[in-house]
Specification:
Radius of gyration: 21 Å
Distance between the termini: 26 Å
CATH superfamily of the largest domain: Jelly Rolls
CATH class of the largest domain: Mainly Beta
CATH topology of the largest domain: Jelly Rolls
């Protein structure tokens, strides 16, 4: 199996390299990563042990990775259930505040256990680059220097390793907040109200970029206007072509932006993980959804209906203004990345004299 990903990001190569190299923080944001332990680190190499768990299947592997900060890191397996495993990160500075990331990974699992684990590892590998991009959006300002992740942002190593040893998944952490384990999904949509205020979900909202400018009281008011939706793997949150009055904040799991869901022509256009927004553009202009939003794992989202946010205008207009600022910042980041990608494509076409 092979993975080849290229992405342009509005962050320096130094900042992105540090995110990629810091394996001890992977459980905080990497879907499927339940524990991480640094075995060795110096200026030329980093070695780590990772425990991956998804859909009840666990994989443990160790790597010892040569590196040249901030442009290159090789991924070399030293222990794990693979017949072949080799990867490489290359970061190309575009300017002081942007870089291109190229990631390649070739691997082959062996044995019966390997064949069972192959689909799980393939999903983790395919989403790896997207997880780093989402992480950067949460902890790195556009055009600025790195904001170091707080200690609370990482799953405590002892807790994660202990959970792995007894076969239980550690409580997943995303963007510095804890998400409670999913309960029965027989009633998938729950008004938050008082139950939200009495749970760690309020802390989840408080730590998200949606509430970055809100006071504690404003965060509480916003929480009361939101709904919690728990999705099973493969469940559709919003169908393509559907008009939906909700904006979504992902608090656990992974959502796929899928064109042609349920058809042979299905294409996953993007993946969104914990801390990301979903459907903000359609929510702003009321347009029908260009693509479906589909859960790619067990996923929890907070939904905000437009009419409920508008209902807060008379109570606290500054709350609404600050929420809209947070959403517009996210839209600006999307526009920034698209502009960079357009420039890169134009440069490529120019260098190739219009030949593809």
């Amino acid at each position: 199996m092979e993975v080849n990903k290229t992405v342009l990001v509005p962050h320096s190569a130094e900042d992105m390299f540090d995110l990629i190299e810091a394996a001890e923080h992977y459980p905080a944001f990497m879907p499927g990563c339940r524990a991480a332990l640094i075995l060795e680190r110096d200026d030329s190499v980093v070695a780590a042990r990772l425990t991956l768990r998804q859909a009840g299947i666990s994989i443990e592997l160790e790597t010892r990775n040569p590196k040249r900060r901030p442009t290159w890191m090789e991924v070399k397996l030293t222990r794990g259930p693979f017949r072949h495993f080799h990867g490489e990160w290359r970061l190309t500075p575009l300017n002081a505040q942007a870089c291109r990331i190229d990631f390649t990974l070739a691997y082959e699992l062996h044995g019966v256990a390997g064949r069972i684990a192959a689909p799980v590892f393939a999903r983790i590998a395919e989403n790896m680059v997207d997880a780093f991009v989402s992480r950067a959006e949460r902890v790195l300002p556009v055009g600025g220097s790195a904001i170091k992740a707080p200690v609370a942002a990482a799953v405590p190593q002892a807790v994660a390793e202990s959970a792995a040893s007894v076969g239980e998944p550690a409580t997943p952490m995303r963007a510095g907040f804890a998400v409670p384990p999913s309960t029965s999904s027989s009633s998938p949509t729950h008004p938050i109200g008082a139950s939200m205020i009495d749970s760690t979900l309020l802390q989840t909202l408080r730590a998200s970029k949606l509430a970055a400018e809100l006071t504690d009281e404003e965060c509480r008011m916003l929480a009361e206007a939101m709904d919690l939706r728990r999705l099973k793997d493969g469940e559709v949150l919003v169908n393509e072509g559907q008009a939906d009055e909700h904006f979504y904040l992902i608090i656990k799991g992974v959502l796929g932006v899928v064109k042609g869901a349920g058809t042979p022509e299905r294409v996953t256009l993007n993946t969104l993980s914990a801390g990301d927004f979903a459907g903000e553009l359609s929510w702003l202009d009321g347009a029908k959804r260009y693509a479906s939003l589909v859960a790619l794992s067990e996923t929890d989202v907070l939904g905000l209906e437009r009419v409920k946010l508008e209902g807060l205008l008379t109570r606290d207009p500054m709350l609404v203004y600050r929420v809209m600022r947070a959403i517009i910042r996210a839209v600006h980041q999307i526009q920034y990345r698209l502009s960079m990608q357009q420039t890169e494509l134009s440069n490529y076409i120019y260098k190739q004299h219009g030949k593809y």
